[in-house]
Design a protein that fits this description.
The protein is 51% helix and 20% strand. The chain is of the alpha+beta class. A 5-stranded antiparallel sheet has the order 6-5-4-8-7. α2 packs antiparallel against α3, α3 packs antiparallel against α4 and α4 packs across α5.
Length: 285
Amino acid sequence: MTMTVQDYLARRRRYEVGLWALFLLVQWVAQCQVKLIDNARSGQGFGNWELLVWEGSSLLVLGALLPLMLYWDHRFPLRIGQLQRNLAIHALLTLPWSLLHVAGMVTLRAGVYRLLGQVYDFGDWPRAFLYEYMKDFRTYGSFLVLIYVYRFFLLRLQGEASLLGRPDRGEPVEPVERPERLLVKKFGKEFLVNVRDIEWAEAAGNYVNLHVGGRVYPLRDTMTNFQRRLDPDRFARVHRSYIVNLDSVVEIEPLDSGDARIHIRGGNAVPLSRRYREQLRSGLA
């Protein structure tokens, strides 16, 4: 069975976690092979299990630190107008990133050694940390590059949307206060989508993901700005990160926490925060 882009997007977070786990596993296998060969050639006398633990602990902590990198990238995105400033910020963030990485992997290694009745020696801390920091600096940069390359190709496959007021030929293509259509660019082609067909929208980093008929189109905007452009009689904010089309609401399911869950036409569900509950009820009324 062939997987479509929309199938991937529907389970995007799950697939992304799996891809990162696979990437780190491949890195662990490849690096261990190199270390084992070098150890055999040099005759340093390290046990094979030690090499496996060293590389495994390092990559395990790097995987645990990925959400932190994604959060920093959300706060300081590398985009035009902020590139130089945010690049400098990311360069500074490599220091706490490396400190967390080294502290985590040393803790893991020491724990494994202790279980085996041995003592782990990280060596001379200033010199050893400088060596690890130089590697972590490159790793941090490599991960950022991978993240942005992945997003670039995903956007090209997914198609990127922009809000237009008058997309007809011969007329100016300028945003208006209440745009009626979306212009979606995908693989060099352009097509139109009616704004009223948007079923729900969710915040996704520097984008707002628009869900239309089972498809997802990213719009470069903030939720607050996007909400201002929508018809308040048709769309309502239901959560800090979600907007719904009132015509798409099928059911509101109360939760024990005091919040609720909104069931959308097509089988999807989005959270409803208590602070937006009355606003939603007024819109539905």
